[in-house]
Amino acid sequence: MKLYIFNEFSGSGSEKENTDALILRAVQTYLKQGGGDPSTVPTILRTAEGKPYFEDLPIHFSISHTGTLWLCIMGNSPVGIDIQRIKPLGMDRVAKRFFTPEEQDYISQTGEAGFFSVWCRKEAYTKYFGSTLATEISKVNMVSEGQLLTEINGIYLTDCPITEDTHCTVAKGTKEEIWINILD
Length: 184
Description:
By secondary structure, the protein is an alpha+beta fold. It has 4 helices and 12 strands, in the order βαβββββαααββββββ. The strands form 4 sheets. The chain has a 4-stranded mixed beta sheet, with helices on one face. A 4-stranded antiparallel beta sheet has the order 6-11-10-9, covered by helices on one side. Strands 2-3 form a two-stranded antiparallel ribbon. α2 crosses α3.
């Protein structure tokens, strides 16, 4: 499983066009690294919920961005990823709306770092299934007995340190290692 990082993302202009161009760069690098044909230009489609996928390649991927950081995780099985810049926000208000009571207890003990750990897990988990965040985020509990879960229903949740001021989680169906790559 490969994680591609681009550190100069700009949401200006058409964000979809910028994202699609980066997805194509990432898949061409992925194919080159795996012995495939890097000249392949797959068609990117989107589900009704907005999750991008390749029409003509059996490669699964998920994307996320925060600030100028853009990430894409690719592999042979479904994946989901989320990255969030750690910054002050009304976490109690958000937690009351989207977190289970057990998760709310967890963040009351762990503060901002705990909040972003739970949030990224929830978002990566819902992206794994291609679901919309609003319909799924409140339904799954990421904490048990005061500890963050690393596996839920056969989905593994792995934290990936990217920068000191971000939190990133990958949801994947295997225990496969994640290899980090920088896109120029």
